Amino acid sequence: MLTKINHIGVAVKSIDEALPFYRDQLGMAFKGSEEVLEQKVKVAMLQVGESKIELLEPTSPESPVAKFLEKNGPGIHHLAYEVADIVAAIAHLKKEGARMIDETPRNGAHGTLIAFVHPKSSNGVLTELCQAGH
Ligand code: CMX
């Protein structure tokens, strides 16, 4: 069902402030940034081999990332796995007893479809399913 780790999401207060560490000091390829309105975040993507690091900056105090930063400060926010068929993956997880935050896919960055599993049902790791955009 899962094909690879697509990205690791990292919550930051400011992409502008966090970017130099990843792009200049670690030397990752910066693939651009965009706002994901549905999730109330600005997202910057950095490529490492076939994997990505996603920097997440809240665009509203109601953003899930704003709440996370308030409680924990900056740090790893979620782990995203790529799936070929997100609707089938959600159905499988539900059948196996996982608690889905999203029972139908939402729009993610770069035309992807995404759905989250609740961290209370995944041993404390906010888990994202991600189907590549077309
Ligand atoms: N990782 C692990 N645990 C987390 C977490 C995270 N990122 N975010 C929240 N939690 C935990 C909290 O610590 C809390 O645990 P305790 O009850 O033990 O204290 C519990 O989950 C409930 O958290 P909360 O602070 O009360 O927050 P909410 O219930 O309001 O929301 C969550 C939590 C995960 C349901 C919400 O953040 C959500 O729906 N997330 C999915 C969407 C998202 O994160 N979008 C941003 C990224 C978008 C993108 O990548 O494009």
From TrEMBL:
Keywords: Isomerase, Metal-binding. Residues 4-132 form the VOC domain. GO terms for biological process: L-methylmalonyl-CoA metabolic process. SUPFAM superfamilies: Glyoxalase/Bleomycin resistance protein/Dihydroxybiphenyl dioxygenase. It is an enzyme of class 5 (isomerase). The keyword Zinc does not apply. InterPro entries: Glyas_Bleomycin-R_OHBP_Dase, MeMalonyl-CoA_epimerase, MMCE/EMCE_epimerase, VOC_core. It holds the Pfam family Glyoxalase_4. GO terms for molecular function: metal ion binding; methylmalonyl-CoA epimerase activity. Its EC number is 5.1.99.1. The keyword Lipid biosynthesis does not apply. Belongs to the methylmalonyl-CoA epimerase family. This is Methylmalonyl-CoA epimerase. It comes from Geoanaerobacter pelophilus. The gene is mce.
